[in-house]
Task: inverse folding
């Protein structure tokens, strides 16, 4: 009689994915990086310094952020995002006025120096300026476009507005004064700027120009 050997089935070994990343660790790293940005600026910010302040290893940081630029932008935005959100006042002009006043308040604080430093360093650092465009500039421009669309839908603004040009007209003067410091950034300046730009975008002004 033939016999067959029964082999004990092997239990497959599941490969683990390692420990899940801790939100607390991420917060510690971002807080440390943000504090160092304020203290020393982007050029002197180092992964070693952030790791020491956050009490983590450098590999822990590099698992989350591939470059110093990516870490710096995430840290900066984590600190300032809640302060520069767009309101919904029911009027596009006032939405821009309130949000731009928030931006000017930020620019007049120590964070404004960090912002200017990031833009300046970004001229010779493609990773940094790309991170700035993708994480700061683009999301805010999309928010601004939504404000324009709401204004058109409510009949406050004329149709056919080139939102890209309008956004540049509103915000470029803020960055011009931030970087060149030839004139102060004041509430009065924002009010005059918003009134000037938005007056040319209203339905009433467009109808008058065609008469």
Result:
């Amino acid at each position: 009689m033939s016999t067959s050997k029964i082999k004990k089935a092997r239990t497959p070994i599941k490969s683990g994915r390692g420990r899940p990343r801790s939100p607390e660790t991420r917060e510690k790293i971002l807080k440390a990086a943000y504090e160092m940005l304020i203290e020393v600026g982007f050029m002197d910010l180092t992964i070693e310094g952030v790791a020491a302040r956050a009490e983590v290893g450098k590999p822990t940081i590099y698992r989350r952020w591939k470059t110093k630029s990516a870490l710096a932008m995430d840290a900066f935005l984590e600190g300032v995002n809640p302060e520069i959100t767009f309101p919904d006042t029911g009027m596009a002009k006032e939405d821009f006025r309130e949000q731009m006043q928030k931006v000017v308040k930020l620019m007049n604080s120590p964070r404004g120096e960090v912002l200017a430093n990031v833009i300046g360093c970004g001229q010779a650092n493609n990773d940094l300026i790309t991170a700035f465009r993708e994480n700061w500039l683009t999301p805010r421009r999309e928010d601004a476009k939504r404000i324009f669309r709401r204004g058109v839908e409510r009949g406050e603004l004329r149709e056919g507005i080139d939102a890209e040009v309008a956004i540049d007209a509103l915000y470029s003067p803020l960055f011009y004064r931030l970087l060149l410091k030839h004139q102060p950034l004041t509430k009065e300046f924002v009010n005059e700027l918003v009134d000037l730009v938005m007056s040319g975008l209203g339905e009433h002004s467009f109808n008058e120009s065609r008469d």
In short: The radius of gyration is 25 Å. The domain at 83-199 is CATH 1.10.357.10 (Tetracycline Repressor; domain 2). Residues 97 and 191 are 7 Å apart (CA to CA).
